[in-house]
TrEMBL record:
Keyword line: Signal
UniProt protein name: VWFC domain-containing protein
Signal sequence, start to end: 1-16
Domain (VWFC) ranges: 56-129, 140-212
Record-linked InterPro entries: VWF_dom
């Protein structure tokens, strides 16, 4: 049984610090949709399908144990194939994936040379060396930096590749959202009602630390925070109004969770606490 206890206290989590872009990333990958008229609240009723713990899920499809997905069915170029397997530590089925290891990881380019990519492939296609190769026919300018055709750059939660026609707008086909592959890597946590932890407020993808419901969890109310929206975050058997916090867990005392973008909690690593442990 979960205990609901309201305590008036001020902690280090900045209540007004909305992770708007990472939250959109997280909810988009889960298949949640924005609530009508709300920019920082989502409807995640589609997650009800995850109650089938003996199946794996990806891209809103369900798979049986021993099913295999590859290529376009995965939608992530750095994963070669994934197999749905019975859980070892959890009762939930989950994906086990074989990832592509690019030669780039073990063979860095020569000084002043640039790896060139396409969105469709995980590894670079070739290397461009300005000192010895002919000038590239197309370049891209973005925030005062010049990129050659095929060169990667990242802005926020967008992974971009310089291509002919780029005009400074971070849209497809030039840029694609960075994917964290929540269903491939963390489906068992999602099924157990856990939420991810981010190291920095604007990180696109979480660190591999998940906050799961515990019987000792209580709600902590922050002083001087009044929310008139009526929107709530749900965590286990608890409901938290926007601005409310969750009590720290014994396992991860440096993880601070609060209701910022309903219906799930937002969890951040308290870096000062983390550096002292």
């Amino acid at each position: 049984m979960f205990f609901v206890l309201c305590i008036s206290v001020v902690l280090g989590f900045a209540a007004g610090q909305l992770r708007t872009e990472p939250a959109k990333q997280y909810y988009r990958e889960l298949g949640c949709t924005e609530l009508e008229g709300e920019t920082n609240a989502y409807n995640c009723s589609s997650l009800a399908e995850l109650s089938e713990t003996k199946k794996c899920f990806h891209n809103h499809k369900s798979y049986k144990v021993k099913d295999v997905i590859k290529g376009d069915d995965i939608g992530y170029p750095c994963a070669y194939e994934c197999i749905c397997q019975k859980g070892y530590k959890s009762k939930n089925a989950n994906w086990q994936c074989v990832h592509i290891e690019c030669p780039d990881l073990f063979n860095p380019p020569k000084p002043d040379c640039i790896r060139l990519y396409t969105h469709e492939k995980c590894c670079s296609e070739k290397t461009y060396c300005p000192a010895t190769d002919p000038p590239m026919p197309h370049t891209c300018e973005y925030k005062g930096v010049s990129y050659v055709e095929g060169q990667k750059f990242v802005d926020g939660c967008k992974n971009c590749i310089c291509q002919k026609g780029f005009n400074g707008t971070l849209v497809e086909p030039f840029c694609k959202p960075i994917t964290c592959e929540f269903y491939l890597h963390y489906s068992d946590y999602i099924q157990d009602g856990c939420v991810p932890t981010y190291y920095e407020p604007n990180d696109c993808c979480p660190v591999p630390i998940w906050r799961c419901p515990q019987e000792s969890d209580v709600v902590i109310t922050q002083k001087n925070i009044e929310d008139q929206s009526g929107l709530k975050c749900k965590f286990g058997n608890l409901e938290l109004a926007i601005g409310n916090m969750l009590s720290p867990s014994e396992e991860n005392k440096c993880v601070e969770c609060s209701c910022q973008v309903p219906p799930h909690l937002t969890c951040l690593m308290n870096t000062t606490c983390y550096s002292q442990h």
